[in-house]
Amino acid sequence: MMVLVGTQTTLIQEGQLSDIDCTNCSCKDSLHFQIYSKYVHITMIPLFAVGKIFECECSNCNKEFDFEDFSENEKQKILNQKEIKEAETPWWTYSGIVILLGLIIFSINSYFDNDKLTKERINTPTTGDVYVLKLDTGYYSTLKIDTITHDSIYTTENDFKSYLSSDIDDIDTPENYTTQKEAYSKKELIELFEKDIITSIKRKE
């Protein structure tokens, strides 16, 4: 998916400037202003606001003005006008940050929940458990518990590997467990978990 980062504006206030004449045609009460909120977006999702833009145009001569085109005295008059003061940045221009923080908090909670559940299951192995392994090559695979004795746990390793841990379900199918057998002690499996080689354990409830 293509990720697009850029800026966008949205109109937040408009009205008529009072007590300020057009410096181009000297017409009174002819300056119409608009205030825009400028924000950064990522793939059209508002991320955060980066400021406001003031635009002004004379309805008599159509001359356009920026805020910097006014004198210091006129700037102060503009800033003191009620409509200008009420021009607030919309909350939704920060919605991307809220979504991002939510995803981070969710990911952190999911990580700790998974870690806690895996700790419980590594200490209570059950026939049929599927262990997700992170291999030295950076790929992921699985092994399935076949039988358990007092001292040993007998498993069958998956013949296939996946590049991402999220793709494990695609290779965790019965036909992918063939002849690659391996026996472990409970202590050895716990050590693999502590070394982050066993990343999670799938168990049919």
SSE arrangement:
Layout: E1 5-16, E2 31-42, E3 45-58, E4 64-66, H1 72-80, H2 82-85, H3 95-122, E5 130-134, E6 140-148, E7 153-158, H4 168-171, E8 177-184, H5 186-194, E9 198-202
Antiparallel strand pairs: 1-2, 2-3, 3-4, 5-6, 5-9, 6-7, 7-8
Describe the structure in your own words:
The protein is α+β, with helices and mostly antiparallel strands. It folds into 2 domains: 5-96, no CATH class; 122-202, no CATH class. It is 26% helix and 36% strand. It contains 5 helices and 9 strands. It has helices at 72-80, 82-85, 95-122, 168-171, 186-194, and strands spanning 5-16, 31-42, 45-58, 64-66, 130-134, 140-148, 153-158, 177-184, 198-202. The strands form 2 sheets. A 5-stranded antiparallel beta sheet has the order 8-7-6-5-9. The protein is rod-shaped and about 95 Å long. The mean pLDDT is 91.
* End-to-end C-alpha gap: 36 Å
Shape: rod-shaped
- Main sheet: which strands, in order across? 8-7-6-5-9
Main structural class: alpha+beta
| Percentage of residues assigned to helices | 25-40%
Main sheet specs: 5 strands, antiparallel
Question: What is the count of β-strands?
Answer: 9
Poorly predicted runs: none
Mean pLDDT: 91
Oligomer description: single chain
| Structure annotation, total helices | 5
What is the chain-wise order of helices and strands? EEEEHHHEEEHEHE
Total discrete domains: 2
Radius of gyration: 32 Å
Strand content: 35-45%
What's a quick, concise take on this entry?
Keywords: Membrane, Transmembrane, Transmembrane helix. Helices cover 26% and strands 36% of the residues.
